[in-house]
């Protein structure tokens, strides 16, 4: 199998690259990334040094550049993870999200169709469903009701992929996952931000009352699900990928769990003004992928959080080099004026 992974230098993309190299060592893997602020070649340092992957710096918004990559690669399958993904940034400037997530996805569809790609997995998010009440879980037929420019752009890209299947028989599958956590997670998202802030004895900025519920999924479990979907998923289908029921946790409780693992005081918690359109609760029903492909999450939240904290303790040079310069300008803009 010859596969191309878009967004391969990002958080989930790099973990998926490592996962596939470990589980399918005979596959040929091309890693594609435009190396924006969240893309880091350091995430792929080992396979690059060992020449186990090919890397190409390409922006999926550039159709001509994509055409050159696909013409040279003769790929069998695409795992599409390239995306602008941070809700807070989308609230500041939605245009970049439309360009990458919508136009970029359509470019990939067009190039994949013209080059006879046999399987195309589009990786999306449960945020396209909007917000849940206190009970129930999202299923694949839940109506789309996005709340942010980010989730709206992902919903649009999902529909473009599914429309290509219905219109042209494009061999595509859409996955929608809950919140991931684990190694290589860029420190603007809740868990890596709070781990690194706590290690620096800095405040942990909790939005609103902190009672927004998220379903957490360890990134290795997500990678296993994506590999299962790539190999056995049905074309034109959507598969929800989520954590177990015990991983549905309020943000404030997740924050306190991080502090407990690190032995840090809860006085580091700082409540800040809530962000606009903040979804109150996410929860996923993953029974479809379980029944069809046999996948289920295997890493509990407590164990996964300890693994994640341990990784950040051992890789402080990685995140300390990121949390400087332009990132800190963004951080101050996002949180500096919101303390209550």
Overall SS class = alpha/beta
Topology as a string of helices (H) and strands (E) = EHEHEHEHHEHEEHEEHEEHEHHHH
Q: How far do the termini sit from each other?
A: 53 Å
Mean pLDDT: 93
Strand content: 15-25%
Number of helices: 13
| Helix content, binned percent | 40-55%
Query: What is the rounded Rg?
Result: 19 Å
Number of strands: 12
Shape category: globular
Description:
By secondary structure, the protein is an alpha/beta fold. 44% of the residues lie in helices and 17% in strands. The protein contains 13 helices and twelve strands. It has a seven-stranded parallel β-sheet with strand order 3-2-1-4-5-6-10, sandwiched between helices. Strand 2 (28-33), helix 2 and strand 3 (53-57) form a beta-alpha-beta unit. The mean pLDDT is 93.
Summarize the structure.
The protein is α/β, with parallel strands linked by helices and 340 residues long.
List keywords for this structure.
340 residues; alpha/beta; seven-stranded parallel beta sheet; 12 strands; 44% helix
Question: What topology does this entry show?
Answer:
Elements: E1 2-6, H1 11-23, E2 28-33, H2 45-49, E3 53-57, H3 63-73, E4 77-80, H4 87-92, H5 95-114, E5 119-125, H6 149-168, E6 172-177, E7 179-181, H7 190-199, E8 204-207, E9 213-218, H8 219-232, E10 238-241, E11 248-250, H9 251-262, E12 269-272, H10 287-293, H11 301-314, H12 316-322, H13 326-335
Parallel strand pairs: 1-2, 1-4, 2-3, 4-5, 5-6, 6-10, 7-9, 8-12
Antiparallel strand pairs: 9-11
């Amino acid at each position: 199998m010859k596969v191309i992974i878009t967004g391969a230098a990002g958080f989930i993309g790099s973990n998926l690259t490592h996962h596939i190299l470990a589980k399918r060592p005979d596959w040929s893997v091309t890693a594609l990334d435009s190396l924006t602020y969240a893309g880091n070649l350091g995430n792929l340092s080992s396979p690059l040094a060992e020449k186990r992957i090919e890397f190409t710096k390409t922006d999926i918004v550039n159709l001509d550049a994509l055409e050159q990559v696909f013409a040279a690669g003769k790929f069998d399958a695409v795992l599409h993870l390239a995306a602008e993904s941070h809700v807070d940034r989308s609230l500041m400037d939605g245009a970049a999200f439309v360009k990458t997530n919508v136009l970029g996805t359509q470019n990939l569809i067009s190039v994949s169709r013209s080059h006879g790609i046999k399987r195309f997995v589009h990786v999306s998010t449960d945020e396209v469903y909007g917000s849940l009440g206190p009970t129930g879980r999202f299923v694949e037929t839940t109506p789309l009701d996005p709340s942010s420019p980010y989730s709206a752009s992902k919903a649009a890209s999902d529909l473009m992929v599914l429309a290509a299947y219905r219109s042209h028989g494009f061999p595509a599958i859409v996955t929608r996952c809950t919140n991931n956590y684990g190694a290589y997670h860029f420190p603007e998202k809740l868990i890596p931000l709070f781990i690194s802030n706590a290690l620096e004895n800095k405040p942990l900025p909790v939005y609103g009352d902190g009672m927004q519920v998220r379903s957490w999924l360890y990134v290795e479990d997500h990678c296993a699900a994506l590999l299962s979907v790539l190999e056995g998923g049905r074309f034109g289908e959507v598969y929800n990928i989520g954590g177990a029921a015990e991983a549905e946790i309020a943000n404030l409780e997740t924050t306190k769990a991080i502090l407990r693992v690190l032995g840090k005081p809860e006085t580091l918690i700082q409540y800040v003004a809530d962000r606009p359109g903040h979804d109150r609760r996410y929860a996923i029903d993953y029974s479809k992928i379980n029944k069809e492909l046999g996948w289920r999450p295997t890493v509990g939240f407590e164990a996964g959080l300890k693994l994640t904290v341990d990784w950040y303790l051992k890789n402080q040079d990685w995140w300390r080099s990121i949390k400087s310069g332009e990132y800190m300008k963004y951080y101050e803009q996002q949180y500096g004026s919101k303390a209550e």
